[in-house]
Write a structure and sequence with these properties.
162 residues
């Protein structure tokens, strides 16, 4: 399969996934409905925990792929309906899948010489990654002003390791 065809298939596939996810999950969600239906939702989760766990991971994965900045609100909602420990596992699973898909998509779609054409902020990020990857990424993840969406795309664009 040619590189151009593969890139188009990835773009179309991700766009279709995002549109479908938005229609079924984000477009149908409201906090007032969540508050009204909380008891019924927790009962439904107790009746079918595997289905709801997979659904929670899928929704969180879609939101991470969509690079939406409000994703932590869903983490709070997951903790409310699943409980803090199990909700954390749902959120971590969705985050891991979403970031993995983003990493693969960015490394496949970005030009090879992207790191050389980045701006000053991305150049600083690239030099920090070269010096000490683990500590630098952990530090950036813990800084509130640094959006996860930026890191989720910038690290693979700068050819950071998976």
């Amino acid at each position: 399969m040619s590189g151009t065809l593969l890139r188009w298939l990835i773009v179309v596939g991700l766009a279709g996934l995002l549109v479908t996810g938005y229609y079924f999950f984000v477009g149908q969600f409201s906090f007032s409905a969540f508050a009204r239906e909380y008891g019924e939702l927790t009962a439904a989760i107790a009746a079918r925990p595997v289905l709801w766990t997979l659904s929670g991971v899928a929704v969180y994965t879609l939101l991470v792929i969509a690079l939406l900045p409000g994703v932590p609100l869903l983490a709070i909602a997951s903790g409310l309906v699943f409980g803090w420990a199990y909700g954390s596992l749902v959120v971590l699973g969705g985050t891991a899948l979403g970031v993995s898909v983003l990493y693969w998509a960015v490394t496949t779609l970005m030009p090879e010489d992207m790191a050389g054409r980045s701006g000053a902020a991305l150049d600083r990020l690239a030099s920090g990654l070269e010096r000490n990857r683990t500590s630098y990424l952990l530090f950036l993840r813990l800084l509130p002003p640094v959006p996860f969406t930026l890191l989720n795309v910038a690290v693979p664009a700068l050819k950071g390791p998976f």
